[in-house]
């Protein structure tokens, strides 16, 4: 009996020591207050959609001068989030930063920019999403193949704002539609679409066999046209931001969304 008690305290003590060491240890480069925002893509879908853990959501829009999103995009995002998320409060805040150097950006540089410029992180009752409007293109872009936005970690998005502005300038689409579509599509990935964590309720019905993690329904916000000529034609002719189809909405509702 005595031995058992001793073991219990030893185990408890070890656990406390490990916790204490972890909070002192900054060798991994991730401060504790950032840990909640350094998880895998799609793993916070339920936390974003439902009211279970967090009653509030805040979106921090980060950009440098000349790369701010349009007010129309921000209003559209507010509507989209209000329609889909079960939250009492949805805040969208802006953080203007000095123009980052080093464009075009590779994924590591995008993460470094976040490290340096993101000011808001998830707290006890509020989950926070970071969106950076980049002043440059993605490093892998070519004349015929380009990336408009990417979601990474569980609450991070980059919108290649310069690429969107260039597309509009060359007659390949309307900036408001390009911005709105890109940001709402990337949020869809944070919400786990399509089947990112292999837990959607009916993935075989709508995950596109030709574009994984995207929706097979052509009118859906989560559709991805993989051929460049097809994408350009689609962007050029788009007059409205596509909405989510019934199957994608059902997936969000299964995780506590509206
Ligand atoms: Zn996508
Ligand atoms: Zn869909």
TrEMBL record:
Signal peptide bounds: 1-20
Coiled-coil regions, chain positions: none
InterPro entries linked: MetalloPept_cat_dom_sf (IPR024079)
Gene3D superfamilies xref list: Collagenase (Catalytic Domain) (3.40.390.10)
MF-aspect GO terms: metallopeptidase activity
Key words of the record: Signal
PROSITE patterns according to UniProt: PROKAR_LIPOPROTEIN (PS51257)
Cell membrane listed as a keyword: no
The protein, known as: Membrane metalloprotease
Source organism of the structure: Cochleicola gelatinilyticus
Lineage: Bacteria, Pseudomonadati, Bacteroidota, Flavobacteriia, Flavobacteriales
